[in-house]
Structure formats: C-alpha cells, structure tokens
Specification:
Helices cover about 35% and strands about 25% of the residues. The chain is an alpha/beta fold. A seven-stranded mixed sheet has the order 3-2-1-4-5-7-6, with helices on both faces. Helix 2 packs parallel to helix 3. It starts with a helix and ends with a strand. The structure holds S-adenosylmethionine. The site of S-adenosylmethionine (SAM) has 25 residues, from helix 1, helix 2 and helix 3.
Length: about 200
C-alpha cells in the first residue's frame, strides 16, 4: 500500500536518514556483507537506505524496488552520480518479487511489511529469493505505533490481519528465517537480522 502525504513527510526527512544510519551500522555489526554480495531492498522509498547500505556495508550491488513509481523517481534523483552503477531501481510488488529463487545474498526491508496486505506472502517471497545462508535485515513497526488513537487518523495502512511481535516472529520462523539478533521494544517495533538455513 502506497504512503499518504503524512507518512511521505515522515520518511522523506533528514531525521529518517539519521535513524536509518543507526540501523545500517547495527546490521553491519551483527552480520557484515561481503564485497561480492548482491542485495535487494524492498520498499526502498526514496533510496536513502540503499545509499547507506552501499556506503557503509559495501556490497557489489543493491537492487532497490518500491510499489510507488513516485518513490522510484525520487530514488533515481537522490543517488549521487558516483553511486549510480551500484544501485538499480525498479517498480515492483513485494508480494510477487520478479527475481529467481535463491538469487539474493541479502534482503533489506525497512518499515515495509506493515504496509503489505498479505504480509505473510511477502515474508515467503523474501525467503524464496534469498540464497541458502542469506540474510534478512529487517526493521518493522507494530500497530501500537501506527494504529493508535492519533496515528490511525494521520496514516494509511491495511487494517486486516496486522502483526504484533509474536505474530511476526512466528511467521518468520515458520518461513525458515532464523533470528540471529534483535533490538526490540515489544509494543513499538523491532530491528532484526535473520538468516535462511544452509549456505557456507
Ligand atoms: C514506511 S515507507 C519506508 C520507506 C523506506 N524503506 C524508509 O525506510 O525510509 C514504506 C515503503 O514501502 C513501499 N511499499 C508498500 N507496499 C509495498 C509493496 N507491496 N511492495 C513494495 N513496496 C511497497 C511504500 O511505497 C513505501 O515507499
């Protein structure tokens, strides 16, 4: 589901870039990327996460996708010319990823699953495109933050079948994504690194 005006303002904001910088540094401490890694960022928004990933974690390439063509256009403008060969953008849907199975070394997903109506399908798509041993770097929010008595009037999200901490962790585990480490405020949200079984 695309963002409304209020959430566009929240994510296309310098404060969000500072916050994502913290997330990327923590991800790198838990499980660094390798220089040969090709990674996918789902729901990339205007591309700040993809830029931070290239600058701080140094993969070979980031495929950055979003449902919203306006975000993709912003992303193409946001990335400095010197980084453009490292990041490719496309419009797509996380519920049906246009990538071969076991083709990605890592998937980054910053605050996107709670926007997806069939989020369990999205989790299974992420698992499908990851190589054995590949990692999911995840930031997610829970309904107490985005569907409370204030935010439910300001923000637009799917309303059916939303997940809390235990639902999300159970779905990730059932899909075959094992938790390596997490920072979590149980009512608010989670930052987590997970791994698909197998690999080196
Ligand atoms: C809260 S924003 C986060 C943007 C960016 N990842 C960030 O952290 O600043 C959620 C993003 O997910 C995108 N999105 C929502 N549903 C999607 C889907 N089914 N497939 C791909 N992107 C989706 C939205 O267009 C939006 O850009």
């Amino acid at each position: 589901m695309k963002l409304n005006w209020a959430e566009r303002w929240v994510v296309n904001n310098p404060v969000r870039v500072l916050e994502q910088g913290f997330h990327v540094r923590w991800f790198g401490r838990v499980k660094p990327l390798r220089a040969r890694d090709v990674v996918l960022e789902v729901g990339c928004g205007r591309g700040a996460g993809a830029v931070l990933t290239v600058e701080q974690l140094g993969p070979a390439h980031v495929c950055a996708m979003d449902l919203d063509h306006q975000m993709i256009r912003r992303g193409m403008r946001y990335v400095a010319p010197s980084l453009r060969s490292k990041i490719s953008f496309y419009v797509g849907d996380l519920e049906s990823l246009p990538h071969a199975s076991a083709s990605m070394d890592a998937v980054f997903c910053y605050g996107v699953l709670h926007h997806v109506p069939d989020w369990r399908r999205a989790v299974s798509e992420i698992h499908r495109v990851l190589k054995p041993g590949g990692s999911l770097y995840l930031e997610e929010l829970y309904p107490a933050l985005y569907q409370n008595f204030i935010t439910r009037h300001l923000l637009a999200h799917p309303e059916e079948d939303r997940f809390r901490s235990s639902d999300l962790k159970a779905a990730l585990d059932a899909a075959g994504l094992k938790l390596l480490d997490a920072l979590e405020l149980k009512a608010v949200g989670i930052l987590a690194v997970l791994s698909k079984a197998g690999g080196e």
